Amino acid sequence: MSESNKDDDVHSKNVSSEKSQRSQSPESLVESGVVSESTKDLDATGSDEEDVKDVGNYVFCAFMMFGFGSLLPWNMFLNIAFDYYTMFKLREESGHANWFASNFQNAMTICAQIPSLGFSVLNIFIAMKGDLTRRMGTCLLIVQSMVFVTVLFIYIDTSSWIPVFFVVTLISIIVLNASNGLFQNSLFGLASPFPFKYTNAVIIGQNFCGTAVTALAMLTKAASDDIQMRANLFFGLSSVAVIVCYILLKVLKKLNFYRKFGELKPSLNSVEGEESSTWSNIREAFSKSKMQFLNIFLLFFVTLALFPNVCMYVTDAKMGEKHDFVVSEKYFMDVVVFLNFNLFAFIGSLMANWVRFPGPNTIWIPVVARFWFMFYFPAANYNPMDFARSYPVLFGSTWLFVFNICIFALTSGYLSSLIMMYAPRSHEDPKIQRMAGMIASFSLIFGIVAGLCFSWQIRLFITGYA
Predict the structure, then answer these.
(1) Which CATH architecture has domain 54-265+277-463?
(2) Is the Cα dihedral 400, 402, 408, 414 positive or negative?
(3) pLDDT digits (tens, 9 = 90+) for 124-133
(4) Residue 174: CB atoms within 10 Å
(5) How far is it, in rounded angstroms, from Cα 38 to Cα 34?
(6) Helices (DSSP H) in 155-192: which residue ranges?
(7) Burial bucket for residue 406 (CB in 10 Å: 0-12, 13-18, 19+)
(8) What residue ranges do the domains of the chain occupy?
């Protein structure tokens, strides 16, 4: 029997034990000392809640939409950044690249994640106070306002004040992703007490978001060369998705299945008015889940060190040579890098719904094995824009690059889903499960920030230029 199946069996036994306890009459529970007289009425209605199901998978679909909608504005930025900012908005009127255009990609990704990291830490310490959905709704309103600012600048000529526009854009990205980080951290905490697949629903939605945005990028590029029209469409759709998520938050709280898992109730063993401290919850979450926190950090460190800042500059031919691949040069980055990565990451996260191998105690092995990609991608035809390589290309095959990026993405989606499901399930108390989910989300973002910072060092090492 695999370790994951053992984990499910333990969880099933806990659930069946709880059901058998609830099946007793309130009077017998009072007599046996399990509950007090004051909680008798609460338990009398609790037995009916055991039969509540997610009819129509409405809650599952809502979590998937939250994952999709929370990442849509950032994915739109990520996919259109090269064409819109690097090649259009931040270029001189002569069309020549400047420092702002050459460094925007790295600056954008780092500025996006550092505030997200900070707010996810803050959210852990205020996790037990207040309604998480209310906090998430406020975050969505802030994201919506930043999307509006971005759309406004599409129609403003910024060519005479590029440095100012560069700074304003980075500030808007910081605010957007700080809110987004708080939203995602709260979302993983909210999903943690639910069954396995509901945490995975968030990751499925996030990975599907990347696939959908990449497909949209290719379709709009084929339909029109008007980059302003494409940017308007991208951010307009982002605004619609944020509005849908905000409405779903209001609807979700009315569903019985959500209330069963999402609204934390006092433990039967807790004394009225007694509340465990945040620090004690953090210590308890770390006691059993610390290896999963390390696993999710290492997984996303490798992923974000290479994607997108390294992978997007891997080309079919060496610098100065002619492009000769089945995918044209115009769509090479879109298809081979972004579509491949997002599609296979999405497939990997879907697989985790049915296949759960390796188990919690051995999942570190494939996580560590992914460090192979840290050597491979920089040693492939990695040719960062406007910079020459200081080291020779060791892996020139484009088909080998396609294969590696597929495996790279598949393992990223699959392993991240498993780890984010394993981390909360090391605990039985829903409050500790929620805390473990939020710390796992922080570890994920910490891995992203560390990886993005390291991607800059990879470019520096390969090219010798900062």
Answers:
(1) Up-down Bundle (1.20)
(2) negative
(3) 776 555 578 8
(4) 18
(5) 12
(6) 162-191
(7) middle
(8) 54-265+277-463
